[in-house]
Design a protein that fits this description.
The protein is mainly beta. The chain has one domain: Cathepsin D, subunit A, domain 1 (Beta Barrel). It has three helices and 16 strands. It has a six-stranded mixed barrel with strand order 3-4-9-5-8-7. Strands 14-15-16 form a three-stranded antiparallel beta sheet, with no helix packed on it. It is globular.
Length: 299
C-alpha cells in the first residue's frame, strides 16, 4: 500500500494492535531489540495476474507453549515522508523496508541486496502495480530473511521478489515492501514462459509453517504532546512483536481477510455528537491516509 504516516499512526496515541493468524512481516531502520523483527508495504497493491505457487504451501506447525516471542523496533521514514520503516536482514546484511499490513510478500530493490546467481529464479518474472500509480517488475529469488540474525528463530528461507525496474521504491528509507498481510494481496507472483509460477507469501506465513508463531502485535509509543511529533530516523516510534496467539487476549482487534481486496477487514464505528456509523474498515500501515466512505460522512 502507500507509504504510512508515522505521524498519523502516532496520532492514535498509545495504541496497540495485535493481529492473529497473520501472514507476513518486514524490515526497518535502526537498532533492533533482542530477538528483532521487520516489515514493509505499498497501498492498493494489485495481484499480478492471478494466483500461483510452487512448493510454498504446507500444513502450519502447531504452536508450542515454549515458543519465545521476539520483537524489533519500528521507525518513521525521513526521505520517504512518514513511512513506517522496519529493518530485515538478508545474509546478516540489513535492508530497510516499508512495514505494510496491506500487502503480502516481500519485494526489495536489486541495488539493496546481493543475491548469488544460484539463488535467483531469473526465468520467473513478476509485475506489481500499486494504488498510487507506481509499479515495479522483477525476478523471483530465494533468500534467508531474519528479523534478528542472532536469533535463529527469526530466520526464514522464503521466496522474495527482486525489483529490477520500476518507480515504486525510489532511493530512500524504504528499499522495498515487507508485506504483513496474510491475504490475497500478493505482490510477487513470478511466472515463466510455460505459465508455471512461484508465489512469494508473507514472512509471517512462513514463520507460522516453520515454528507455529502465528500472530504479530504492533504497538506505538505515546507522543509528548499526545498528537503530533517530528522524530529522527533513528528514534523508534513503536515495535512489532511476533508470538503465539492462544485466543485468550481481550486486547486484540479481530479481523478477517476481505477476498475482494485481500486486505485485513474489521469493523469500525465512526461516532459523532449526534449519531454513529458502523462499516468495514481496513488497517493498512502502507497508506498515509485515512479514507472514509460517503456513508461515514453523511451520518
Amino acid at each position: 500500500m502507500k507509504k504510512v504516516s508515522a505521524k498519523q499512526l502516532l496520532a492514535v496515541a498509545v495504541s496497540c494492535l495485535a493481529l492473529a493468524g497473520c501472514g507476513s512481516s518486514g524490515g526497518g531502520s535502526g537498532t533492533t531489540q533482542p530477538g528483532g523483527s521487520g516489515g514493509s508495504g505499498n497501498s492498493g497493491t494489485q495481484q499480478p495476474g492471478g494466483n500461483g505457487g510452487s512448493g510454498n504451501g504446507g500444513t502450519p506447525t502447531q504452536p508450542s507453549p515454549s515458543i519465545t516471542p521476539f520483537s524489533t523496533y519500528l521507525y518513521s521514514g525521513t526521505t520517504d515522508v512518514n513511512a513506517l520503516i522496519i529493518t530485515a536482514y538478508r545474509d546478516e546484511k540489513p535492508v530497510t523496508l516499508l512495514a505494510d499490513t496491506g500487502a503480502s510478500g516481500l519485494i526489495v530493490n536489486q541495488s539493496a541486496v546481493s543475491i548469488p546467481n544460484s539463488d535467483l529464479n531469473s526465468s520467473y518474472t513478476f509485475t506489481a502495480t500499486f494504488g498510487d500509480g507506481s509499479s515495479d517488475t522483477g525476478i523471483m529469488a530465494s533468500a534467508t530473511i531474519c528479523i534478528n540474525p542472532s536469533n535463529t528463530a527469526s530466520c526464514i528461507v522464503m521466496p522474495i521478489g527482486v525489483i529490477t525496474s520500476g518507480n515504486a521504491f525510489p532511493i530512500g528509507d524504504a528499499q522495498g515492501d515487507f508485506g504483513l498481510d496474510s491475504g490475497l494481496n500478493i505482490m510477487d507472483i513470478g511466472y515463466n514462459s510455460s505459465g508455471s509460477s512461484i508465489t512469494g507469501y508473507s514472512y509471517a506465513t512462513y514463520l507460522t509453517q516453520q515454528s507455529g508463531i502465528n500472530s504479530y502485535t504492533l504497538s506505538f509509543y505515546p507522543l509528548s504532546n499526545t498528537f503530533y511529533a517530528n522524530v529522527s530516523a533513528t528514534t523508534p516510534i513503536g515495535q512489532i512483536t511476533f508470538g503465539v496467539y492462544n485466543g485468550n487476549s481481550s486486547t486484540l482487534i479481530p479481523y478477517s481477510t476481505d477476498f475482494l481486496t485481500g486486505l485485513p477487514d474489521t469493523t469500525g464505528v465512526f461516532a459523532s455528537s449526534t449519531s454513529s456509523y458502523t462499516d468495514s474498515v481496513f488497517f493498512d500501515t502502507g497508506s498515509n491516509f485515512n479514507f472514509l466512505s460517503t456513508g461515514a460522512l453523511k451520518n
